[in-house]
Amino acid sequence: MKNHFLKILLFSISVFQLEIISFTQQNEKIWFDGLGRSYFSRDNVVSNGDTISPNNMSGGYNLIDLNVHVNPIPNIEVFGQVRVQNQFGGFFGSGTQIDVRQLTARGTFKNKIKFSVGDIYLKQNRFTLYNYDEDLNLYKSDFYNSYKSIIDYENFYEENRWRLQGLQVDFSYKFDRFIRTLEFDFFTTRPRGSSQINSALNTFQSDMLLSGATIYSKISNSISAELNYSTLNELPNSGTQLKSVKNPVYQIGLIHNYNAKKFNFNSKIQAGFSERSWSYKVGYDSISHRKLGMFFEYKSELSKMDTLFNISWGSRYVDPNFRSSAAQSRRIDMTESNLTTIYTTYSNDAVIRPISVFDIISDLNIYNQNISPTLMNFNPIFSNALPYGDATPNRIGVFLKGFYKNKKKYFDINFSTSFFSEVIGQGTSRKRTFLTFSQLTKVYLNEIFNHKKEFNFSLGYLNQITNREGDSIEFINLNSNHIDFKMEKELLDKVYFNFSTKRVKALGNEYLTVRDGFDEIITFQQVDYNRIDYLHALGLKYQFKKDVYIDIQYNFWGSEFNRANFYDFDFQRLLFIFSIKL
Amino acid sequence: MLKINLKYLTFILLIFQFSNFLSQTSAGDFLTPFSSNIKYTKNPSSQFSFTGYYRFLGFVRNQKDVFPNNSGKTLAILSGDQFREPMLLLKLKGLTKDKITIGADFMLNSLYKGPESDNNNLTLELGINLRTSFNTKFGKFNLSSGGVNWYRQSRLTVWGNRTFNRQSLYHRRPQTRLTNTPEIRYKNYYEKGLIDDGLRYGNRAFQGIFIQGQDIPFNLSFKGVIGKTPFNRSNFNELSNNYTSCFKINKKINDFNLAYNFLNSSNLVDTLSSDFRRYSINTLEFSHKMKSFHFSFEGGFGSYNSPENNFEFGEAIIANFKTTKNLKFPIDLQAYRIAPEFVNLTGNFLNTTVLEVFPDVGANNRATTIRPQFNSPIIGLGRHTNNRQGISINAEHSFKRLKINAGIGVSSEIDTSAASLSYRYNVNSETLSRLYLFARDWGPYNNLNSTYRNIFENVDLVDTNDSGLANFKKYFNSIEFQAKYNGTLFNHQFYIFLLTRFNSCSKSFFPLPKYNLEMLISQLSNELDLSFELNKNTYLVLNVGIERVIGNNQTEIGDNNSSLGSPINLIHHFFNENSTRNFERNQRNTLFGCGIDFKIGENAMLFFRQNFYKYYDPNFVFNNLKGTETMLELKFLF
Amino acid sequence: MTKNYIKCFILIFLSFVACTKDEFEGPSLQNLYGDFSISSPFIISNSTPNFTNNETVKFFCDFNKSVDWKITIKGLQTGSIKEITGFSDIIDSNVVSWNGNTSKVPFFGEETCALELSFLTEPDTLRDTLIITGNKIYDGILVADFENGIPQDALVFHQFSMNMTFDTASDDPLNGNSYFKMGGRMGWNEWFLGSIDFPLDMSSVNSSAEDFYINLGVLSGINGEVASDQFINILISESNYPFNDDLSNNASDVFQDTMEVYKYQIRPVDWVGWNMVSVRYDQFEVKSSGGNNIRQPKNITAIKLQCQSCPGLSANCPENMGIDVRTDVDFLIFTEGADILNQ
To answer: Shortest CA distance to B598 belongs to which of B607, B590, B611?
Structure first.
């Protein structure tokens, strides 16, 4: 009986008239583009007390990413990216590294089904597959744009997508009655391949697969519906590990869109649930540490047609047991073993230098490209309310955000506020509450004073207050302030002088959670903060166009911990970047 | 449960299908449908282009007499002559509309050692360069970063080892350009005396950030670099704090040119103590051009600091007076004085005073860096070293189709130096350097040193003072003579080039070089090149080279106490039985080579060379080499 | 339409809020960071245990939070020490008990013992005493306790050099009243000082090599000093060759290179006082592969204890010229399932 229905199902799909947008046909069969970059930096310690760390360190590289596009037949493209990198100081071939960085084939079948194979950048729903911005990213502002563009490029961060390797297809239909569109999207990827863990013991890590599907339908002009599914699986037989994880996530959403003369009003209700468990190879197929969780979100958005004003609000509930690996993986794992590149250790005790504001802004090596089946560590001073983005488990609360642009282009403002509470407490039945407020204002002085050359400043601010009532052990109060300021003045044509400063101050106490391999909290680490992180940058930038620039900067950065037996640090950097994207 | 789900799903799909049959419209008016993948926009315009060459070199060396520590392998069949040269050079160039360029030169080599060999690799020949230029109302500026970039500033700061370009054309290098016909190479050399040695000639390799400004107010121009040279390599990792930075500011006043040059080089000795080996140079350059002569002068001061040596002040002067070539007897007069304290590894002179400044790290898969000559080098005309002062004069003249040019020079040390000497071979230098690439202190007597396609030998002196230095100042004399002749034989063009180089080093001053046992070392070489046109596309080339080096009793003695093998001893003995006999260096290098230059087609040529070499010293019995080299070079440009 | 959404939303949202569970994630903070207090006294079930009769001593105590605790029992006469540790908020008498064994030799005798309950992160310490009225009898195959001198079948060989002590003594036994002294000083460049061999019949043993333990008390050091690189070789033979076939030989005849012999080195013997060394039979290496190379306890026919040391005349340890080697042994016993200290 089951097979009977399957046959009909397959037949139905096969006889469908598929209508897909196709690529515009091109004539050239092989063409190239790419990126070139020179990067030199010189760092030095300012702290006088440190006699072990080198006073100065310098380094850099030159690289070319050559993108080869091959169009063997119309509507099919094979894309390969070759990286040639030469370390600064490596002469005549030494210090040269040549890698294949990306390899993808994409196109359309019979002008109907779009497909991509190889390296693909995927994003689905904020609760099923989403690569949330890193900590300290305030409205995607461009305070340290050169660093940021390199970090995103090197870590393959594109529009909150995870770079994965596998196969993706999508196709869609359009109808005249009942519903208007029906869109399908499927993917299956391998975020981690099997590899040997220990050659002596001949043990292997299992393959990890991430697959998903989306069905999206525009039911009417004003109503749409979506269904998302993603699942992360380790394949036990592809390795020798005894346990393997499984994490399917389901989401369903309904979107309503109302257009008035001057305003748009959109609402979305969505909910979903997840399951995460580990199965065992040995003995019997038992399931342990099983977590079932769900989420619910309501969000409305009111925006002016002229796009000068927008406000959105909503509320969200995410269960403590909601686990969605592909949406909760962080860009930065704040574990101590995630070592910084510059001055990994410091002070005369050669202690490991904790990740600071400067590292988050500049160090591409601390960033993560992998999907983690368990929750990664975070640092509450940088992000405590929603360390795993909107999919942060154990949160219930409301949020409001919006922006306003001045008609005369004198200024624009972004703002956001939210109030969340834990659903259940951690280590106590009392719950933390998180109050967050942030804003970013950019003032265009050249418009106000009617100057031709650009002259503007931006001021960003984020304040996050974490509270938990209770006795002296349960009590938490952590206040984290994050201030950004940037001034930019165009001196000559396309030559900008800029000064920016970033300061994060955290004062109060918190408990860090320590989790085991199954994500269970095993203990709490009590921490007191009176920490100030700062980064000041002074620079000249010649911006030929968006992706072509020369940037010379001087950075002053460091951390003050204000704690006994904890050394402050203070460094400086001279930076030169010449980047060309063709 | 699944069954029920399937029922519903099938039902829904059938309804969709039905509605679809009834109502489907054309696909063209879709809005962007949902896709989990990134939206792809195509911009098919090739902004990169490739040029380069393919060069195959088949190389066979058959040794008949070998050094004693040879492994027993006497025949070598190689693809390439093992220098780090590209078989396929692929020069990549990317260009934006704003005239910003990206460049890289890929080098692909294959050793062709069988299908199972994995010695095939792709790497960069030199490096990656990013360049841009921008015009402002303050002038035109060029900025580039990366490297290797070839950079030149002034003779005392940054300048390649450049001489009077007197050389044999028989040997070919990978970067030797293809000419339209085989003849052009020889014709150019006959007429202009110059061959194109590529970009590297006269320049120094740098990595870093380069900036150049032209047409700046007050007739100023400048150029500068902050970066590293191959001499800034470090034992520490790439984060080491080793730099060379230099700049030049130039001002033009009518026919006068005035320039200020600065150079600073620092190598970190220890990351913790912050000890550096550092030298710093400031010079002024002046040049004046008139109708028939050109005068240039560079003078300045340098200082050097390291944990081992501390020189606070050292002067250097290079002056040059030359007439234009259109005179009947064009001359070129050079004088220089470079103090021992004036240290620089990137100038147009050799450093012979501080050894520790050479980086002691490997390159080109070698454990140690290859140093240039350090021990009181005997060098040709136009080359300089520090701790030396000298003068030279060059002149040329034509007798119809015979062109001759000659130079004579004398120089002396300013202060005593190490009790040793070094000299390069003029004949067989390529052959010997190929026996053991980039090696220091090798050979049966551990005194040979291979550099890039060249070799030099160190000679220890026996007369030393209490501190181990030579007990005297050394004096150097050089004569170079070149004759070029072009003629026709049975309607076929031919070119003959004769090159004689004569150097000697002595304990006291002599106006001319001498070839006798008064001299510490006497070196005399003669090379004759003949290029004969067989047809328009084919040239026959011949080369004969003879070189003799003798040392006197102030130099190391050999291990053969019989003097019968040495003609000079026999001659001395013939005239005077009690005459001084030579038991020291008594080397003779001979090379006979023949070959063909053949143009296969447009931008494609084939070169064949067959060398018969011999290196022999009757007093140093293990210095005895003999063999043949066969080379077939095929080169295509694209 | 919008109103309907909002109504729907409020309903669903309230249902979530109402469903919030009244519990918490992770361990209790009170447990981790609260003040420590002992909720009930430290109770000992038996203050005059007779371990000969298989009696046990049970312990009980409970606290307001989980802590790392340690019970230390110290024999006031022998100095023997037994330690029991755990991390919990209760010392459960059903789980935590003592059967008279020791963590560190010598063994407990019939003596008064001091008890101490202490905590890793807390300063509190609770104390009590008990009196052992009967010694624990260890379960195993006793090879030699030297109470009646050197066993009759055993063979002793030693070099005739300085201060050789290959005989029983009773000045400082590990167990009972006597032990076997192995030591001396070599006057020439020779590592081997002497040995003692015991014939064995283990045919009734069924354990595998992984479950079979060789336990040996070893006394080391003289006046707080030990000779450099002194050690004991334990050789076990599974050869069926007669143990003492050649009577003119000074040692047994079953440890030849052609026979099935396994070896373990206690190296170095560098402590001062007695130490109980327990080795699983499967940890022995093949010394000579005269057999099947499978360690089978039931086939063991003999054991040899060799005293060895770096000779003072060798260039490696001239300091041994001034010190005697001491690798005395006592209470050689085979156990099955667990080593002797974990019985």
So the answer is: B607
Question: In 3-state terms, what secondary structure has residue C280?
Answer: strand
Residue A277 lies in a domain: yes
Q: In this predicted model, what pLDDT tens digit does every residue of B210-244 receive, in sequence order?
A: 999 999 999 899 999 999 888 887 766 555 678 89
Residue B606 and residue B628: Cα distance in Å, rounded?
A: 20
Least Cα distance to C331 among C205, C147, C145, C148 occurs for C145
* Predicted pLDDT of residue B517: 87
Beta bridge partners of A268: A255, A299
Tokens of B256: 């006068």
**Contact by Cβ (8 Å): A40, B98:** no
Whether A74 is in a domain gets the answer yes
**One CATH from 2.40.160.40, 3.20.20.150, 2.60.120.200, 2.40.50.140 for C141-342:** 2.60.120.200
Residue written as tokens 């939070």? C65
Buried b (16+ CB within 10 A) or exposed e, C196-221: bbbbbebeebebbeebbbbbbbbbbb
What's domain C31-131's architecture?
Sandwich (2.60)
On the question of a common fold for C31-131 and C141-342, the answer reads: no
Model ipTM value: 0.69
Question: How many CB atoms lie under 10 A from the CB of residue B39?
Answer: 8
Would you call the peptide bond into B148 cis, given omega within 30 degrees of 0 as the criterion? yes
**Taking a contact as any Cβ pair under 8 Å apart, which residues of chain A between 104 and 123 contact chain B?**
106, 111, 114, 116, 120-123
How far are the Cα atoms of A141, A397, A433, A508 from residue A467, in angstroms, in the given order?
28, 14, 5, 10
Integer CA distances (angstroms), B330 to B406, B480, B544, in order: 11, 16, 29
Identify the segments of chain B with pLDDT beneath 70: 1-32, 42-46, 115-120, 162-163, 194-201, 235-240, 271-273, 361-370, 562-573, 577-579
CATH of the domain at A179: 2.40.170
Residue with tokens 């197929």: A285
Q: Which of A7, A127, A174 to mutate to test the interface with B (most CBs of B within 10 A)?
A: A174
* Separation of alpha carbons B40 and A120, rounded Å: 11
CA distance B546 to B105: 39
**Dihedrals φ, ψ of C281, to 5°?**
-65, -30
Q: Which residue of C has its CA nearest to A270?
A: C9
Task: Give the whole-angstrom CA distance, residue B603 versus residue B145.
Answer: 32
Which domain range does residue A293 map to? 29-581
Check A269 against C8: CB less than 8 A apart.
yes
A396 chain-C contacts, CB cut-off 8 A: 16-17, 20
- DSSP code of residue A484: E
For B25-30, the CB contacts below 8 A with 24+ separation are: B25/A174, B25/A176, B26/A19, B27/A19, B27/A20, B27/A21, B27/A111, B27/A174, B30/A19, B30/A21, B30/A172, B30/A174, B30/A181
How many CB atoms within 10 Å of residue C40?
11
Nearest to A215 by CA among A241, A191, A250, A239: A250
SS3 A565: coil
Q: What's the whole-model pTM score?
A: 0.78
Q: In this complex, is the C-beta atom of A492 within 8 Å of any C-beta atom belonging to chain B?
A: yes
* H or E stretch at A486: strand A476-492
Q: Strands of A319-390 (E only): list them.
A: 345-346, 351-352
Measured between alpha carbons, how far is C150 from C169 in angstroms, rounded to an integer? 10
Q: Do chains C and A touch (3 or more CB pairs under 8 A)?
A: yes
Domain residue ranges in chain C: 31-131, 141-342
**Chain A, nearest residue to B11 by Cα:** A9
What pLDDT does residue B628 have? 97
